[in-house]
């Protein structure tokens, strides 16, 4: 439901997906002096409703230890724990090669949260938890509320928006506009912000699989000639051991896999993945996502910041996209909290520049990692295969290297 009319806020966030909702919660917690509005064009998720927002679909998200720490500070962990499975070990392997790397929570104290390297949470559960928590804050939730136009002025942003049940346009002014409207953002196009895109010509096939035995908190990342494949632990449901599958493959192969019967798909999966997680008994319905690297050429301007998929949309290898976004949001909120204390406007350019510069190194490393790893492991060059195995050997033999790899994977890398 659209709440009562309001005209001016310190921060307006457009998009109530994982990025926008998380940022709004952080603002409520760390910058209580700021008035915040969140505008989402679709109906918000709640416990009883079917999922309508793209963020909160049938996927499961690997949340790093660093992100769990953030959720814990926001008071969300006690509820999220009921819907999540801990990651206690990450096992990385390369198909057709003997060497692999295993990272254990017990040996990576720096990179763990309550003895976990991270946790896997089903997006359909994450949505209602984030939005229920938001409903208990002073953040003004406007939904369904579609932003139809934005205009940047000297004092801030002016938004035009429309409720689903009403054709009248309303106006909202904000000192800071945060665009969190997802990949291929229409608002960025309207603002003249260009995007650099590399099409991987791959798709991620996502489903839930049923297994004969317990996963024991192990997350598997397996590199095959076609691309990486992840099997992530999920909580048991109706007595069934479950894991979330993200199988990345070329577009044509994804098409033919999607046409297989459940039994034939399970057989192909078992052959490609092997037996380290035991027998795969069944697979749920398949969902297919096109993969690209998409980077906005600008992430901040006076009175404007981009967060989430509209700022950077990554290959899902190693589950980095949302974890990176949470670190961006945390950095932004810290900058805004400092501004509040010094009574500086939230949209001031030097403040936003400082935030943006502070996030560059982490973004470059994380984006570079997610872009290069799939092609490195897909290469049929003997030289690259040799280097890859040498890299695995280095990780397997050298604890400091392994700790730094675990640190990066668990979100404590920087
Ligand atoms: C297959 C796959 C697996 C992944 N796995 C992981 C993982 O394990 N770990 C990890 O860290 N990351 C993972 N990611 C990345 C993660 O899903 C993204 O970081 C996350 O979805 C970012 O969401 P968002 O809020 O930026 O965008 P979106 O989910 O697209 O949300 C944008 C919202 O804006 C709203 N909106 C759009 N336009 C308007 C408008 N004009 N007015 C009002 N509202 C508007 C939309 O309705 C939508 O709700 C994965 C991604 C994929 C594709």
Q: Would you give an account of this structure?
A:
Helices cover 35% and strands 32% of the residues. The chain is of the alpha+beta class and 414 residues long. It has a domain at 8-60 and 123-196 and 295-374: 3-Layer(bba) Sandwich (FAD/NAD(P)-binding domain). Strands 5, 6, 12, 13, 14, 15, 16, 17 and 20 form a 9-stranded mixed sheet that branches. Strand 5 and strand 6 (100-104) form a beta hairpin. Helix 1 runs parallel beside helix 4 (123-135), helix 1 runs parallel beside helix 8 and helix 10 (382-397) packs across helix 11 (399-409). The radius of gyration is 22 Å and the shape is globular. The two termini are 40 Å apart. The mean pLDDT is 86. Flavin-adenine dinucleotide binds next to helix 1, strand 3, strand 9, strand 12 and helix 8.
Task: Produce the secondary structure layout.
Layout: E1 8-14, H1 18-30, E2 36-39, E3 60-64, H2 65-73, H3 77-81, E4 84-87, E5 89-94, E6 100-104, E7 118-122, H4 123-135, E8 140-142, E9 145-152, E10 157-163, E11 169-179, H5 186-190, E12 195-211, E13 218-224, E14 227-237, E15 240-250, H6 251-258, H7 262-273, E16 280-283, E17 287-296, E18 300-301, E19 304-306, E20 312-313, H8 321-341, H9 349-378, H10 382-397, H11 399-409
Parallel strand pairs: 1-2, 1-11, 2-8, 5-13, 11-19
Antiparallel strand pairs: 3-7, 4-7, 5-6, 9-10, 10-11, 12-15, 12-16, 12-17, 13-14, 14-15, 17-20, 18-19
Helix pairs in contact: 1-4, 1-8, 8-9, 10-11
The protein binds flavin-adenine dinucleotide (FAD).
């Amino acid at each position: 439901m659209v709440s009562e009319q309001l005209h001016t806020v310190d921060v307006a966030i457009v998009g109530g997906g994982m990025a926008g909702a998380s940022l709004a919660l952080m603002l409520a917690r760390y910058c209580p002096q700021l008035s915040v509005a969140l505008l989402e064009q679709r109906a918000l998720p709640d416990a009883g409703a079917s999922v309508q927002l793209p963020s909160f679909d049938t996927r499961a998200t690997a949340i790093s230890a660093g992100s769990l720490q953030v959720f814990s500070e926001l008071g969300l962990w006690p509820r999220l724990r009921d819907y999540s499975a801990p990651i206690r070990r990450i096992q990385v392997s390369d198909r057709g090669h003997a060497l692999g790397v295993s990272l254990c929570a017990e040996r990576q104290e720096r990179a763990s949260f309550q003895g976990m390297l991270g946790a896997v949470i089903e997006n359909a559960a994450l949505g209602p938890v984030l939005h229920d928590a938001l409903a208990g804050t002073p953040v003004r939730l406007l939904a369904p509320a579609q932003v139809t136009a934005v205009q940047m002025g000297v004092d801030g942003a002016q938004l035009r928006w429309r409720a689903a049940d009403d054709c009248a346009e309303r106006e909202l002014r904000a000192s800071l506009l945060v665009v969190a409207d997802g990949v291929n953002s229409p608002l960025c196009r309207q603002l003249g912000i260009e995007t650099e895109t590399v099409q991987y010509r791959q798709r991620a096939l996502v489903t839930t699989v049923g297994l004969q035995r317990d996963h024991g908190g192990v997350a598997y990342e397996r590199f095959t000639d076609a691309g990486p494949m992840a099997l992530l632990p999920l909580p048991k449901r109706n007595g069934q051991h479950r894991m979330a599958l993200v199988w990345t493959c070329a577009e044509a192969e994804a098409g033919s896999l999607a046409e297989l019967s459940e039994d034939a798909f399970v057989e192909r999966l078992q052959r490609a993945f092997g037996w380290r997680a035991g027998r795969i008994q069944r697979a749920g319905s398949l969902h297919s996502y096109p993969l690209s690297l998409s980077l906005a050429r600008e992430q901040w301007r006076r009175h404007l910041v981009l967060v989430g998929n509209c700022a950077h949309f990554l290959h899902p290898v190693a589950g980095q996209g949302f974890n990176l976004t949470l670190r961006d949001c945390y950095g932004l909120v810290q900058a805004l909290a400092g501004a509040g204390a010094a009574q500086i406007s939230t949209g001031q350019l030097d403040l936003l520049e400082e935030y943006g510069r502070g996030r560059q190194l982490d973004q470059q490393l994380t984006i570079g990692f997610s872009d290069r790893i799939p092609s490195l492991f897909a290469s049929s060059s003997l030289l690259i295969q040799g280097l890859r195995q040498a890299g695995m050997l280095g990780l397997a033999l050298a604890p400091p290297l392994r700790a730094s790899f675990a640190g990066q994977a668990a979100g404590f890398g920087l």
